[in-house]
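Field reference: "sequence" (input) and "structure" (output). Example, Undecaprenyl-diphosphatase:
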Amino acid sequence: MISNRYRNGIMMISLGIFIVITFLSLQHHMVTFDRRLMHWLTEVTPGYVSQLVSALTILGSGEVIVILTFIIFLALMLYKRFEYALMLLMVSIGGIVLNFLLKILFQRERPGDMTVIEMFGFSLEVASYSFPSGHTMRSVLLISFLILLSLRHAGGKVMKVVLTLMLLCLMLLIAISRILVDMHFPTDILAAVSISVFWFFACLGVTERLMPQKR
């Protein structure tokens, strides 16, 4: 696995990227980049591929993420992997709170119609802002956690590589889908990925200090 030195480096780089994107976005220096990339993605993506990828956006919805997180948490508790269960709670719940606070702080409007926060059919009268993408953050955090489990506990090296690549592709497709359905700007996605990486490794470091990993 990655040493603490490289983890800290990844965390600082990710946080730096997030700060730069945030600053440039607030100063409206990324408008041209957003528009050109959105136009390019729309132009180069065939209609049937766009529909297929757009359908994947549901995998990053709050309902799906909550259900999957609950199932994984129960499985970890059943197998007495309490260190992973604790980390999953920190990653998921902390990530949701962090995303909500960032959205409220920056209050960036979406490229399409503004929506409100919804969960399992219940609607909160709180605007669902665009920056950073909640779908992307939830997906990146949960998939990163699954990648960690795969790298540490999957069978052989080939299996680890296959699972990691599949999960990374799924992460990428969900992120792109948010642009194709006109719900987020590309900078919303980049900001979400960078802050998610920072938060994931921060949670990993805290968890390993509180509860050393059981091999």
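The beta strands are 115-119, 122-128.
The mean pLDDT is 83.
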